[in-house]
UniProtKB/TrEMBL annotation:
<dbReference type="Pfam" id="PF01966">
    <property type="entry name" value="HD"/>
</dbReference>
<feature type="domain" description="HD/PDEase">
    <location>
        <begin position="34"/>
        <end position="152"/>
    </location>
</feature>
<protein>
    <submittedName>
        <fullName>HD domain-containing protein</fullName>
    </submittedName>
</protein>
<dbReference type="InterPro" id="IPR006674">
    <property type="entry name" value="HD_domain"/>
</dbReference>
<dbReference type="InterPro" id="IPR003607">
    <property type="entry name" value="HD/PDEase_dom"/>
</dbReference>
Amino acid sequence: MTLNWQNDTEYLELVADLIDTKDVQSLVEFKQHHYSNRLEHSISVSYRSFLLAKKWNGNTRATARAGLLHDLFYYDWKTEEKSPNGSHAYVHPRIALENARKLTEISDLEEDIIVKHMFGATIAPPKYKESYIVTLVDKYCACEEVFVPLYEKMKFKASNYFGLVNV
């Protein structure tokens, strides 16, 4: 699915002060979910969550901004041990929150969204519907980022193997 976030002025107004910062743009350097980078993932989570919050009368500003900042950490979680204080699922949201606070003021709602976005892999449940939105959209995007390219790759291999044009 192609997202049209670049042309959504309402969304861009909410994240304009964040999205072009060096801190956020540097996420492009980190692979995320095998076939995407962390910047693409963060924007996808942010924009899709914004759309759902808008549809369900949620706080679109907090949802868009926290969705963009939910994975604001600067290490490869698959190869680097970041902390002896817990699993990556527990630690990285707290690191993201710390980094987000260096960029902007973070509301209680935004804090809950960022820290609780790994619910399911962690124990503490979100307090707000916006936190649940980002949590579920994050999981959806992760699956899409892995399975869509994998499916396309397998489809291409199958078509070559069987000599088929349209699989």
